[in-house]
Specification:
heterodimer; A: Elongation Factor Tu (Ef-tu), domain 3; Rossmann fold; 3 domains; six-stranded parallel β-sheet; B: mainly alpha; 2 strands; 57% helix; elongated; transmembrane helix (chain B); DUF7727 domain-containing protein (chain B)
């Protein structure tokens, strides 16, 4: 579909470099593991097993490497801190992608390692290089037991992490993935018991680490790869402590679009615009943490999220808050009716506060914040923000934040903001409209912020007339109640970016900008993958040497 | 909370189990060993475990001629064809039968537990069979794939 596999993996500089370094380092480590076993005269007895033992040792070292790498992309707090400093080097936001690449590699090398060991042990039994049966090694010694356990844990983790299952039942994935704890313990313990040795029997000593390096000749890789595990464990403990700090759910609003807005107070919580956090509601689920984008600006006195009831957790949360699907449906219906009637000064932006007097508001815990690429808005001259559907949430925070900073006259290198919102149906405008209205009304420079809203839904004839009649000569758009007019159909991003580039190059767009300097147009996207691809391709195609278009996206 | 669809999960486990079984069967042709030979077997140095006399039938089918590993490989490939399913099986309704899959997986587990390399395949096949059994008891149904889907990626 579109580009070929070869094109994707080898024809893009960055990806090619990644592939070279990632797979190159794997092959290099495999080669080293093989060579150092094969050339070790102390292990001559084991080398009698020939290829299988060299393969198993090489693959074992590669697996240690992968075991050390697999947790690194999950060190969310560490990543958040180092992110601004390493962004130029590698895309720190693609951490889950990297986690998956390591996992795929791990599955492959586990196959190689296990296959080689099954050959090793049958030959150990036949030649009696060590006086034991294959059965004893497989099911009686630390290496064999932990290895079989790790393989079974991998089966459970990989199968439940498949995107189909993860989307269908997130908690199955969530809980099963915590088997990683036992997996890591198995990994660190896999080489215990002085398995690689030049003596027939293990050489134990009474002091730490309880084996003598005289005769136990393993790679001792656990001494290196245990650190990401320890840091990760520490991070989880820290997150737990941080989550326990006082948090109060102050207010819950339901917007006519069906989105719930949760406003929370947590004095110890500091974040920047465009970040996300985990939320836990013990009443709904005791252990689960769910990620949501923060929609309030750092300057706001509260932390807010907008939640649409689409998944199992969010629906259960709505039920608990007293804003179940039936309530939402009734409200949405009313809002739809309202939208037909409202004139230019309608009231469709209204939302309702939910108090739920019988049960009160539940306790909530929040954990975060975690990084997202949209923090970088203030480093470029032009910000090209694109939100698709509910993917507009981080932009609520960013636009509000821009507004606050504009008031303080502290915008960094940011000169202009182009904001696009591609959305299907009119009622979804509801909650976001208030934010946009505030920001738009506050603009002193009419050119600084341009809001472009695209409605992709097919509209009925009645609605069409309604718009036509109300729109003509009205100061505000009849749908969004903004000064900006709503556009219909899908935006042609390539054409838009092309025009933008031309006006930058001709000096009209950023008056007074030195044309010899490079202008950076940073596009940020959040929303469905199909739209993401379109925006990315448009940005890549439009980029030139003096007007650079960059692309970053936020993952849900 | 989210409904866990057992047959959806069991399918992935079944695929892993049978890929493992095919791979294990291949190696069992090269390195032939009856897994249960330690029962009443005698140790010889060198030479390894010598199976007891009453195991003769398994020795014939695994060590002298690798019949059981080959059957496991063929069965593994068949189950894989059923799980994907491949084009000729897609039109038939048997690829949606959980009972058939449970029977085949248990049979696969029985075959693979007999030879040295197949133990993990046996464990995973049993796990998949348990998954499908849960799917049956919960009354899950596999939807028939819709026609007129067209070829993937062909849509504008």
């Amino acid at each position: 579909m579109g580009e070929s596999w070869f094109h994707r993996e080898f024809m893009q500089g960055r990806r090619l470099l990644f592939n070279f370094l990632f797979y190159g380092s794997h092959l290099g480590i495999f080669g080293y593991g093989w060579y150092s076993q094969a050339s070790n005269t102390k292990l001559a007895a084991l080398n009698g097993l020939t290829y299988s033992v060299w393969t198993s040792r090489g693959a074992g070292l590669v697996l240690a490497y992968d075991g050390g790498l697999i947790l690194i992309p999950m060190l969310r707090n560490v990543l958040r801190v180092v992110r601004p400093r390493v962004q130029w080097l590698f895309p720190a936001d693609e951490n889950i992608w990297f986690h998956r690449q390591v996992a795929y590699s791990m599955a492959f090398w586990a196959m190689v390692h296990t296959t080689a060991h099954y050959v090793n042990f049958i030959n150990v039994e036949r030649t009696q290089v060590r006086p034991e049966r294959a059965l004893d090694i497989h099911y009686g010694q630390a290496g064999g037991i932990s290895g079989h356990f790790m393989l079974f844990i991998m089966v459970l983790m990989y199968t439940t992490a498949h995107h189909k299952i993860r989307q269908q039942c997130f908690e199955a994935f969530w809980y099963t993935h915590h088997l990683a704890f036992f997996f890591m313990i198995g990994l660190y313990a896999h080489a215990t018991g002085c398995f690689v040795r030049d003596s027939a029997d293990p050489d134990y000593i009474s002091s730490f680490p309880f084996y003598s390096t005289e005769h136990c000749l393993g790679y001792l890789s656990w001494r290196f790869i245990i650190w990401p595990g320890i840091i990760y464990f520490g991070e989880r403990v820290y997150r737990e402590i941080r989550a326990r700090r006082a948090t109060r759910l102050a207010k819950v609003f339901v917007h006519p679009s069906g989105a719930m807005e949760l406003r929370m107070l947590k004095p110890s919580f500091k974040f920047t615009a465009g970040q996300w956090m985990f939320i836990q509601v013990p009443d709904v689920s005791k252990f689960q943490w769910h990620p949501f984008t923060i929609t309030s600006a750092p300057e706001d006195p509260y932390v807010s999220v907008h939640i649409r009831q689409t998944g199992d957790f969010t629906r259960a949360l709505g039920e608990r808050l007293g804003a179940g699907p039936s309530v939402i449906a009734a409200m949405t219906k009313e809002a739809m009716k309202g939208s037909e009637k409202t004139g230019p000064l309608g009231i469709r932006g209204d939302f309702t506060e939910i108090t739920n007097p019988e049960r009160g508001l539940p306790t909530v815990r929040i954990d975060g914040p975690f990084g997202a690429p949209t923090e970088d808005v203030f480093k470029s001259e032009v910000a090209f923000l694109v939100g698709g559907g509910i993917g507009v949430t981080p932009f609520a925070s960013i636009l509000k934040h821009i507004w606050y900073r504009q008031k303080r006259g502290n915008l960094g290198s940011l000169r202009r903001v182009e904001f696009f919102w591609v959305v299907r149906d009119a009622p979804s405008f509801g909650w976001f409209q208030t934010v946009l209205q505030e920001v738009e009304a506050a603009q002193t420079d009419p050119n600084f912020l341009r809001i472009n809203i695209y409605l992709t839904q097919k509209i009925s004839e009645d609605m069409l007339w309604n718009i036509a009649v109300n729109d003509a000569g009205g100061e505000y758009d009849p749908l969004t109640l903004l000064r900006t007019r709503t556009m219909f159909g899908r935006p042609d991003f390539k054409g838009i970016m092309e025009k933008l580039r031309m006006s930058i190059e001709s000096g009209q767009y950023l008056p007074g900008s030195n044309s010899q300097l490079k202008t950076r147009v940073a596009s940020f996207f959040c929303g469905p993958p199909t739209l993401s691809k379109i925006v990315k391709e448009a940005a890549m195609a439009t980029s030139t040497s003096n007007v650079e278009f960059t692309f970053a996206k936020e993952h849900f | 909370m989210g409904v866990f669809i057992w047959h959806q999960w069991a399918r992935f486990v079944s695929i892993i189990a049978n890929v493992y079984a095919v791979w294990a069967g291949f190696w069992a042709i090269i390195f032939r060993k009856f897994f249960w030979d330690f029962v009443n077997g005698t140790m010889r140095n060198p030479g390894g475990l010598q199976p007891a006399k009453q195991d003769a039938i398994f020795i014939t089918l695994i060590v002298k001629a690798p019949v059981i590993p080959i059957i496991a490989m063929v069965l593994g490939l068949f189950i894989l064809a059923l799980e994907y399913p491949i084009a000729p099986l897609k039109r038939l309704s048997i690829h949606r039968s959980f009972v058939l899959k449970v029977v085949l997986l248990l049979f696969q587990a029985f075959l693979t537990i007999l030879f040295y390399q197949g133990t993990n395949a046996a464990i995973y096949a049993t796990t998949a069979a348990i998954g499908y059994t849960r799917a049956i008891t919960k009354g899950e149904q596999m939807e028939e794939a819709k026609d007129n889907r067209g070829k993937g990626g062909g849509r504008a």
